[in-house]
Structures are given as C-alpha cells and as structure tokens.
Amino acid sequence: MNHKRHFHLLSHILRKNSSLIECAVRKICIEQVPIFNQLNDREKTEISFLAVSKRFQKGEIIFSTNELSENLYIVHKGKVKISRLSISGKEQILQILEPGDFTGELSLFGQSIQKSTAEALKETDICLIRGKDIKKLVLKIPTIAIKILEEYTKKFDEAEDLIEQLGIQNVEQRIARYLLKIVGDKENNENGEIELALSISKQDLASFIGTTKETLSRKLTAFQEQGWIKLIGHRRILILDKESLRQIIYS
Known about the structure:
The chain is α+β, with helices and mostly antiparallel strands. The chain is built from 8 helices and 13 strands. It has a 4-stranded antiparallel sheet. A 4-stranded antiparallel sheet has the order 2-9-5-6. Helix 1 packs across helix 2, helix 5 crosses helix 8 and helix 6 crosses helix 7. The radius of gyration is 22 Å and the shape is elongated. It starts with a helix and ends with a helix.
C-alpha cells in the first residue's frame, strides 16, 4: 500500500513539475513577441496559460490555404515559411518567420479563411493562442489591439514593398536588395569584407525574390565574377563591394 501511495505521489509531482516547465516555456515564448512586451509579469503569465505548445518537424504544414483562420501562431523556436501558390502553381514566399515572429493576427477581428500556407523549414516550436482568447485579452488589456495593428501595418508595408520589387525591379536588382537588407549595419572585417549566412535555402530564396533557383545561382555567379561578392559553400556569401550592389538597385 505504501509503495502505491509513493508511486501516486511521485507521479503527481512529476506531472506538476512537467506542467510548470511547460508553462515557463510558453511564458518565454510570449515574452519574445513585440505585441506583449509592454505587459507586466502577471499579464504575461496569464497569457501563457492560454497558449498551447506544438512542435512541427521540418517540412510539416502548420496551416494551409482555405483553412479557417482562428488562431495566433507565435514562433518560439525554429523557422516558418509563409507562401502562396499562383494560378500557374508557382510558389511565392511572402515571409520567413523566426523566433518572436507571429502570424494569424487577423483572428483578433473575426474568423477568416487562410490565403497562404505555413510550413516548418526546420524543427519548430509554435505557441498557439485561440482567437477567442485573444479577444478576451483585448477587452482586459486594450493596448494589445494597438500593438497588433502596429505589427500588421508593418507587415502590410513589407508586402507592398515586395509587390513593388516583383513588379518593377529585375532579378539582379532584387538579389542585390535582398543581400543589402541582410547586411544591414554590419561592419566590414579587417579584410574589408562582410560575411553573410543565408538563413534559408537557395530554392526558398529564389521563390522569395520571384525567380528560379537556376537563375539565382547564375546571377550570384555573375556577381562573383564582377568582384562584388564571393560565394563560400551553399549558404555563406562575402560581400566585397557593397557600393556596386547599391548602384545595381538604382540603375
């Protein structure tokens, strides 16, 4: 009888500890998101209890086109590709989500239909919050709605920029713009170079900038021959002449 009691007690402790650990992980996930970073510790803990943790393997679909959109998806760990298929069946990548990024914010305003697909590019942990729970939170903490609208506006501007690039700029200009965006404010090393590590495959990069993998590889090789960049392996690039890349964009 004592053994049974000890077993049940141990099981209860393990379940409780597991639940506490999971809650702590969800809270870390919540703290990564800009829309929640102004909340106090109690409010973040409250939200973490509403979240559900889910793990997706590389290549696994998180949600698909035409599904009901009723959840907020927060990337805790990993990387997620948001894409759409054109009428001809060609994939266009809209966003690459990394830890702290989220999608599904429109679930705050009511049910809608997904117009894109989300796919895990590597093993990915997602914190999911149901839209109806988000609405309840907004009634208690209205500043969340303002932050969501701010983030949505930022995404809308980025989408408009992407449409402009695809419609006006040629492939060389789009590649140069992407490389310079990654460069950001990085400083040159002692050799006058800036090293970049592509966070996505060349196939996904090609889809993101609206071209084929073969064309992307050919253009990058041409950039290298011009002495503007140096390719190292599959995903590393040395930027040798940032100014020439900038001139391509505005030529």
